[in-house]
Structures are given as structure tokens and as C-alpha cells.
Design goal:
The protein is of the alpha/beta class. It has one domain: Rossmann fold. It contains 18 helices and nine strands. It has helices at 2-9, 11-22, 25-31, 35-43, 46-53, 67-73, 85-98, 100-108, 182-207, 221-234, 247-253, 257-264, 299-312, 331-342, 390-405, 435-442, 446-456, 462-485; strands at 237-241, 282-284, 289-291, 317-324, 347-353, 356-357, 360-361, 382-386, 411-416. The strands form three sheets. Strands 1-4-5-9-8 form a five-stranded parallel sheet, sandwiched between helices. Strands 2-3 form a two-stranded antiparallel sheet. α14 links the parallel β4 (317-324) and β5 (347-353). The longest helix has 26 residues, at 182-207. Residues 1-59, 76-154 and 159-178 have low confidence and may be disordered. It binds thiamine diphosphate (TPP) and magnesium ion. Magnesium ion (MG) binds next to β6.
Length: 503
């Protein structure tokens, strides 16, 4: 793994050095002059040095075997797969890493929509999947110097977390954008396909009167998956506090489509709350996440409290806290960020900015153009990045995760994402949102972008893409059948876990 190579090549000293570089020296040291000193002091901690610097340090495992792992376990038996993923990744990596944007652009022409969506079932997906628009993102994410090919790119900027590379030694680069291997990207693509398929299914089941409510993740998936991959690959350990729109986060963390569907249908066996909560809500500590409430922002102080707890226990765990742009107006978010920064807690605030809080546009939510600007007020770094570009999102998220893991404190990573569907299935967005705006937003569909990138890199053929889509479809179909057949929980244990039980 490239990332582990970079990470372990230097040992603890290198990590500290690199993390100091990963901060914007001018910005951060001006605001928090003791940050680097703190990081250096960490080098003296043998336990931490050992935990971070040893090549044997375990990476937090994925509770859910990655799709490529599952494919390998299946003994390359997947029909229609014409190339082994690892080989494809290895062969193609050089080309992709050199000129990904151009490569993607070339490949986008003629890339067909491989929606193997089996029109044979009753479930109607609500969105088009990948769009072969040929549009290529030129966002590099963290520096704000790049412009979209069309010249309409928002000027992403902020306190950059990305390191410089004064020696020009890209191989030793800490935080270079190429740290996600093609194998990782294929895993992310498979998880994105699974999430999108599941999301469309739940939406359809809502329209059929079977699922009470759903808040769609469509358009947010790249940001969500990049965040989980960044935590998984860069933190000694991690824990997440997602919010109601984070189906890709929970899926990546190991919640299966069946488990999610049991929640959406409020069926017995749902693991997060026994189907007594809003879908996707409850706790799965074994999967590394808690999502207790959709009263927006309430989980931010909880996440920070968790981070304080792990610090007090001497553990090196990075906590990821996810919420939307509208949620940033809640007092809880201010309290959480202020406390986290004062105590230099290892938290990354992942802000999924889709420019709407239900019907309220961002311009009525904040008087600034980018939420990340507020980070300065807490003396923490903040960046805004294209959250539909999985590599740019991963880069920004990884820099923040590494900074947190090294004792550099919290950061804000703001993802510019799109919301393709109404706020929830209970919302009618036609009364406040122009259809043309959504059509425009669909050109940034993260699924299509990643499909084109992988195709251009030679890691995804039409056949393999179709096979991956069939596989996602089959998993969601099977989960749907099982969830529909499952009973509702009995009324007898309705109050279980609500109050303390007599012993
Ligand atoms: C404290 C509180 N106030 C209001 C609501 C109603 N509400 C639910 S979601 C939402 C908008 C949140 O928008 P944002 O944070 O941008 O997340 P998004 O849904 O766009 O992903 C609001 C106002 C709530 N759940 N909790
Ligand atoms: Mg929003």
C-alpha cells in the first residue's frame, strides 16, 4: 500500500515531521504556535511512537470484507470479469497517476451507461446512474488554484492541509493525491454502486408505502466513502458519528444492505436500535459508529466527548463527525468545535455541503461563501474540496486525519456535494428548486466520475462494470426479499432499553 509505505518509511519522527508540514505553517502557527511543539513532544512518547511508527501497526480492519477481497475469496469465479483486479490495478496505476484528468477525459467518450439494472423487477430506481457526460473534474481539492475545465468551478480554497514537497520527491510525498491505489478505488466504486442501488431501492419502497421515510445519500457518496477510507487508511484507530444522510458511510463501515433495509422497514432484527429508531439510527460500536439522533447537530458534542474520552484513556483514535451545511448553524456545532480545538482533540468535522437545509439555501444559512472559513475562528485548519471527486475528497480527508492522529488537533473538511433528490421522501423540492439546477448538478454525479476514472485507468471494462452492477443488484434484491419477509418486532418489548430494567 502506497500510503503505508509513506507512513512507515519514516517512523514516528517522519510522521511528526510530515504532519508539521501538513499544516499550513503560516496559518496554523500564527494561530496556534504550540502546535508543532506539541507534535514534537509526541515523539518522546514511546508508546505513541511505537503505535504509529511500527511497520507492524495494524490498520483498523474493515468489518465488511472489501469487494475486491470478496472477489478474491470467490476464487476469481466472477463470470464476465475479464481481468484480475490486482493486476489491473498494478498495470494501470502508472498511467492513471500521471495524468488522471486527461485520461478520464479521453475515456469518457464512448463510455456507455452500463446500467445492468435488470428492468425485470418491480423496483424502479429514481435516478439515472452514471452519466457519460464526458465532463471531467479538474479539482485538485485543497489548494483552490485549480479551475474546472468548463471554467465554472467554485474557487475551492482554505487553510491547506496538503503538504509541500520541497525535495520534489514525489515518492516520499506525504499526502500525495495518488495514495489511493486502483484497488482501493475499485473497492470504493463497488461500495458506491451498492449504496446507490440500495438508496434507489429504499426510495422506491417508500413510494410503495413500505419504507416510512428515507433521506437519500445520492450525490454525497464520494465524500462519504473518501472519509471512511481516509480514516481506515490513515488513523491507528477511528470512530464515526455519521448523520441521517450517510448511507455510504454506514455501508462502508459494514452495515449490510439487509441490516439497513430491516431499519427502513422497521423489522425485527435491525441491529442499531432493534427497529425502534429512525432508520440508520442507533449504535453499532462493533462497526465503529453511533448515530443516536436526527435532531441536527446534537451528535457533534457527542463526537467531541468521545474524542475526549479516548484521549483520557490514552488511545490514539481519530473521531469523524459528519453533518450538513445547515447543521453548522446549530449552537451544538460551535460548542463542539470550540471545545475540540481548545483541547486539541483528534476530531475531523466532515461537512457535507449540499447547499440546502431542506428548502433553505446556503445563502440564507451563512453569510460566507464557504463554511470552512469558520475554522479559522476556532484556530483549526479548514479546507473546501470537491466532494464528488473521490480522490480529491480522500486527499483532504486524509490530511486532516493524519493531523489529528499526530496530536495536531481538529480540522474542518468541507465537501462540496450535490443533493439530487428532495430533502427526504416527505419533502417536495419542486416548490423551491429549479429542475435545471438539479440537471446541472447531475453532471457531477460521483458515480459517473469514478466510473470514467476507472475506465480510463484500464481497471474497469464494460463487462466488469456490468458484473459489478449485477452483483450489487443481486445483493440488494436478496436483502429486499429477506427484509420484506421478516416480522415486525413484537409490541411486548416496546419499552426495552428505554428505562433501566429491574435486575
Ligand atoms: C435541532 C433541529 N432543528 C431542525 C430540525 C429539522 N431538520 C431536519 S434536517 C434539517 C436540515 C439539515 O440540513 P443540512 O445540515 O444541510 O443537512 P442535509 O439534510 O442537507 O444533508 C432540518 C432543519 C432538526 N432535525 N433538528
Ligand atoms: Mg445541506
Amino acid at each position: 500500500m502506497l500510503i503505508e509505505g509513506a507512513r512507515f518509511r519514516y517512523g514516528a519522527a517522519g510522521l511528526v515531521w510530515d504532519n508539521r508540514r501538513a499544516m499550513d505553517e503560516r496559518e496554523l502557527q500564527a494561530r496556534r504556535p504550540d502546535a508543532s511543539a506539541d507534535a514534537l513532544a509526541l515523539m518522546e512518547e514511546p508508546a505513541l511512537a511505537e503505535a504509529l511508527g511500527s511497520a507492524d501497526s495494524p490498520r483498523p480492519p474493515s468489518p465488511r470484507p472489501s469487494p475486491t477481497e470478496r472477489e478474491r475469496e470467490a476464487g476469481e469465479a466472477s463470470t464476465g470479469t475479464t481481468e484480475a483486479p490486482a493486476e489491473a490495478a498494478g498495470e494501470a496505476s502508472a498511467g492513471m497517476m500521471e495524468a488522471p484528468a486527461e485520461a478520464a477525459g479521453e475515456a469518457s467518450t464512448g463510455t456507455t451507461e452500463a446500467e445492468a439494472a435488470g428492468e425485470d423487477t418491480a423496483y424502479a430506481g429514481t435516478t439515472e446512474a452514471a452519466e457519460a457526460t464526458g465532463e471531467v473534474s479538474a479539482y485538485a481539492g485543497t489548494t483552490g488554484q485549480e479551475e474546472e475545465a468548463a471554467g465554472e468551478a467554485p474557487a475551492y480554497a482554505g487553510t491547506t492541509l496538503a503538504p509541500e514537497d520541497p525535495e520534489g520527491d514525489a515518492d516520499a510525498g506525504f499526502g500525495a493525491a495518488d495514495e489511493l491505489t486502483l484497488e482501493d478505488l475499485l473497492d470504493i466504486y463497488a461500495t458506491m454502486l451498492l449504496t446507490r442501488t440500495l438508496d434507489e431501492r429504499v426510495w422506491a419502497m417508500n413510494r410503495q408505502g413500505k419504507a416510512a421515510i428515507v433521506a437519500s445519500s445520492q450525490g454525497h457518496e464520494a465524500a462519504q466513502l473518501a472519509s471512511v477510507w481516509a480514516l481506515r487508511k490513515n488513523a491507528p484507530d477511528f470512530f464515526c458519528f455519521p448523520y441521517y444522510r450517510d448511507l455510504a458511510v454506514t455501508t462502508a463501515l459494514g452495515l449490510t444492505p439487509l441490516e439497513s433495509l430491516l431499519g427502513f422497514l422497521a423489522k425485527e432484527g435491525e441491529p442499531l436500535s432493534g427497529a425502534r429508531q429512525f432508520p440508520q439510527h442507533g449504535a453499532a460500536p462493533q462497526l465503529r459508529f453511533i448515530n443516536h439522533s436526527n435532531v441536527i447537530g446534537t451528535h457533534a458534542p457527542q463526537a467531541v466527548g468521545w474524542a475526549l474520552g479516548v484521549k483520557m484513556r490514552g488511545e490514539n483514535t481519530v473521531t469523524g463527525c459528519f453533518f450538513g451545511d445547515g447543521t453548522t448553524s446549530q449552537g451544538d456545532v460551535h460548542e463542539a468545535m470550540n471545545f475540540a480545538s481548545i483541547h486539541k482533540l483528534a476530531v475531523v468535522f466532515f461537512v457535507e455541503n449540499n447547499k440546502y437545509a431542506i428548502s433553505v439555501p446556503m445563502s440564507r444559512q451563512m453569510a460566507i461563501g464557504r463554511y470552512a472559513e469558520r475554522a479559522a475562528g476556532y484556530a483549526m485548519p479548514g479546507v473546501t474540496v470537491d466532494g464528488t471527486d473521490v480522490r480529491a475528497a480522500y486527499q483532504a480527508a486524509s490530511d486532516a486525519v493524519r493531523l489529528a492522529a499526530m496530536g495536531g488537533g481538529p480540522s474542518v473538511v468541507e465537501f462540496d456535494v450535490e443533493r439530487y433528490l428532495p430533502h427526504t421522501s416527505d419533502d417536495d423540492d419542486t416548490v423551491y428548486r429549479d429542475r435545471a439546477e438539479i440537471e446541472e448538478a447531475r453532471k457531477r454525479d460521483p458515480l459517473g466520475k469514478l466510473q470514467r476514472l476507472l475506465t480510463a485507468a484500464g481497471a474497469l471494462t464494460e463487462e466488469r462494470d456490468a458484473e459489478m452492477r449485477r452483483s450489487a443488484r443481486a445483493e440488494v434484491d436478496a436483502a429486499t426479499d429477506t427484509a420484506e419477509a421478516a416480522p415486525f418486532p413484537g409490541a411486548g418489548d416496546l419499552l426495552r432499553h428505554v428505562t433501566a430494567e429491574a435486575r
